[in-house]
Specification:
Strand order of the largest sheet: 3-4-2-1-5-6-8-7
Distance between the termini: 44 Å
CATH architecture of the largest domain: 3-Layer(bba) Sandwich
Largest sheet: 8 strands, mixed
Number of domains: 4
Number of helices: 14
CATH topology of the largest domain: FAD/NAD(P)-binding domain
CATH superfamily of the largest domain: FAD/NAD(P)-binding domain
Length: 542
């Protein structure tokens, strides 16, 4: 059943609680604008424990049974409203946007409006955009213009996911949570055998002076992942890892100067990101830190393979695994995609296919034009005691994790070649960089570690959404003009942040497939659209 989507233009905890009480087991999706800080201590569980730090953006939370979704948008109200992607059934209106068309765009046919106060000019503006008021002059029903509000058919909830790393596992879990039957196809005998096979991946936010799109996306992914992992059972419980904190050292004096300006802006609460000047950073590190550091208390590390296992286990009986299956060809027939192996034998069939196989996606004809590169990364494994031990992750040009099961992970190299073998030069580079961080002399160690290949797009952002069909000609001015393959989607290009990209990107794609409100602002969703590269190309050639 489609959830009831409610928009609250000025978050009120009592109003939200009342909506939760009366939804009567029906799915409820509550979207709330929060133009001022909210006292979360007054909210009931589970919302109090999930409440986000007061940083700009859309923050998605869910009840334990999944029946209630709460989206809170922190920021300037008009801007937040303009960035919503949702079909709203009812709106609690505390103020009227300067352009009533922005509000009307979100309403479904028959949507109800409840206003706190309206003057005559505001009422007229709303009436011109499809709202019909009753005798109270504070309640209205929205009637869509002809052609608007046409219901779309619900998708047939069967999908094939190709690739069993963190991208594919998250896609399986997010779809299964909505009742989809999913067939997971992987060429290896077990999940997380490629880029997701490292012993440890670190997670932390990204900061920038201008709070650019990449920074906002990483922040959204990071915060969503923290809440998502708790829903799976928690870091260090449902899967290996620790929310031990990350100390990110400034690279040099110039970099530190920029970071101090960011800290002085007061945008980030200390629990999210705290700037440490040199003495405090050095005291934490136990070594000189002349340029200071950021302390991310909620950051840490996790073992990607165990995260994959937890996500796949959460799918239950809705997941079918087809491992050791080399899928080489996709064909379209009778409204379905047919996935075949090298001998032409059918592996699986479904109306929806999600390519989540990293650079392996370009081996399929339909995705061959995607601009994805493989970047080599060698991680070094050191025996516990080889370096001064720290209870948290530290990073600068390299990172070092706390010891786990006697192994410290140090890395990772960024190489342009395709050599899968461990090599001494990359190991020496890794050890040299982390030794400089810790203020110790470089040393030799037995060659040990792992080499993986990151899937990277030209703009270093993931691809999440429907894949473009470059074979269909035509001029494109906007993303919605770009032709797409029917039912073919991608979750690709996660680079070095697969742990945190995977849950949010999978949630975004699941919402697109289901026609649900998106978990990020429209501008951010557009920045992840796989069609963005074809759009740029056609604009250049127009």
């Amino acid at each position: 059943m489609k959830p009831l989507v409610t928009l609250d233009t000025d978050f009120d905890g009592a109003r939200f609680h009342a909506a939760c009480t009366r939804h009567g087991g029906r799915r409820l999706h509550y979207i709330a604008l929060a133009p001022r800080p909210v006292d979360a201590s007054q909210l009931p569980e589970p919302w109090r424990s999930q409440w986000p730090p007061c940083v700009p953006g859309l923050h998605r939370m869910a009840s334990r049974d999944g029946l209630v979704i709460l989206d809170v948008l922190i920021g300037e109200p008009d801007a937040c409203l303009a960035q919503l992607s949702a079909s709203v059934d009812e709106v609690h209106l505390a103020w009227v946007p300067p352009a009533a068309t922005v509000l009307a765009r979100l309403m479904v046919d028959g949507a109800r409006l409840h206003a706190v106060h309206l003057d005559e000019a505001q009422r007229v503006a709303l009436q011109k955009n499809g709202f019909v008021f009753d005798e109270s002059r504070l309640r209205a029903v929205f009637y869509a213009r002809r052609g608007d509000g046409v219901a779309t058919a619900a998708p047939e909830r069967r999908a094939i996911v190709i690739g069993a790393g963190v991208a594919g596992a998250a896609a399986c879990e997010r779809l299964a949570a909505r009742g989809w039957k999913v067939t997971l196809v992987e060429r290896h005998a077990q999940p997380a055998s490629e880029a997701s096979g490292n012993l440890a991946g670190i997670f932390m936010p990204q900061l920038s002076k201008d709070d650019n799109i990449a920074t906002r996306l990483v922040r959204a992914a990071y915060l969503y992942s923290l809440r998502y992992w708790e829903s799976l059972g928690g870091i260090g419980a449902a899967f290996d890892g620790a929310q031990c904190g990350v100390l990110q050292l400034a690279r040099d004096g110039a970099h530190a100067q920029v970071q101090r300006k960011i800290a002085a802006g007061g945008q980030y609460p200390p629990g999210f990101a705290r700037w440490l000047d040199a003495p405090e950073a050095a005291a934490m590190l136990g070594a000189p830190a002349p340029d200071g550091a950021w302390w991310f208390a909620q950051g840490g590390w996790a073992r990607p393979s165990s995260v994959c296992a937890a996500m796949l286990d959460a799918c239950g009986a809705l997941l079918t695994r087809r491992f050791s299956s080399s899928a080489l060809r996709l064909e379209r027939g009778d409204g379905e995609w047919l996935l075949r192996d090298a001998q032409g034998a059918l592996i699986a069939a479904a109306p929806t296919v999600i390519l989540a196989a990293g650079t392996g996606a370009v081996d399929f004809e339909q995705a061959a034009g995607l601009p994805l590169d493989a970047v080599r990364g060698q991680v070094t494994h050191l025996a516990e005691g080889s370096l001064p031990s720290l209870p948290f992750v530290v990073c600068r040009e390299a990172y070092m994790t706390p010891a786990h099961q006697g192994i410290v992970c140090v890395g990772a190299s960024y190489d342009a070649d395709a050599d899968p073998a461990l090599r001494p030069s990359s190991q020496q580079d890794n050890i040299g960089k982390v030794a400089a961080i810790l203020g110790v002399a470089p040393f030799d160690a037995p060659l040990a570690g792992r080499t993986g290949f990151r899937c990277v797009a030209p703009d270093r952002l993931p691809l999440a959404g429907a894949l473009p069909d470059p074979g269909v000609p035509g001029r494109c001015e906007r993303l919605r003009d770009v032709p797409r393959w029917p039912g073919l989607h991608g979750l690709l290009g996660y680079a070095s942040r697969g742990l945190i990209w995977a849950p949010l990107a999978a949630e975004l794609l699941a919402c697109q497939l289901e026609g649900e409100p998106l978990p990020v602002e429209a501008q951010l969703a557009a920045a992840l659209d796989p069609a963005r590269f074809l759009l740029r190309e056609r604009r250049r050639n127009a």
